User: Fold these one by one.
Assistant:
Number 1:
Amino acid sequence: MAIRVQQQPFDLGAEVSRFAGARHDAGAVVTFTGLVRDDGGLDRMQIEHYPGMTERALQQIEGEARARWQLRDALIIHRFGDLRPGEAIMMVATAAAHRAAAFEAAEFLMDYLKSRAPFWKKEFGADGAAWVASKDADEQALGRWASPEDQN
């Protein structure tokens, strides 16, 4: 397990090689990388977080993913600071005995990072600056992972 919250860019190829190369007990490794998307006029995105609190929240959700899907390993990298369009914001990697578990766990982690992880995003462009609001679609995606106890 590794969780990193960092300002500096990461080398996707090196991270995947290191993660997958250490796994001789897994039949599947799934990775996902989120990028800063420019829907028109975005100069930069600023991502803020509270050190300590953020890492604890990511460790908790990573532990939940491990328990649900019996992962062999997981990696979460999330950046903060000023990022430009095309730059990597985050990466998730999961390793499991079988592909279904690796894919589902990666999707679960990505949905959590998009909707619940304690990061705050502000976009800066030609029209000024605005905080990024949560989207209903992101909440709905996260809802598919709710346990029966969460729905009561």
Note: The radius of gyration is 16 Å.
Number 2:
Amino acid sequence: MRVYVVMMLQFIIWSGFTFIEWLSKHDQLIYKVIMFFIFFYLAFLIGHKVTKSSKKTLFITTLSLVIYTSLHFTLEHFIH
């Protein structure tokens, strides 16, 4: 159940990142990269708070990012 909670919280974080990235579409790439690492760190911290395991948290965070990114690009492809 903890993994499910972490995945849902991280999907919310990745959605927030996508929204903020959309708002800052005219920013330079370096600022977007820095912003990504801040959101990744935030997702990791929240996941670690729930799971209490660094390895499990890193795996879940990476997995949630991969799933969110693939869904984002797939749905974006179908919409346009």
Note: Residues 29 and 35 are 10 Å apart (CA to CA).
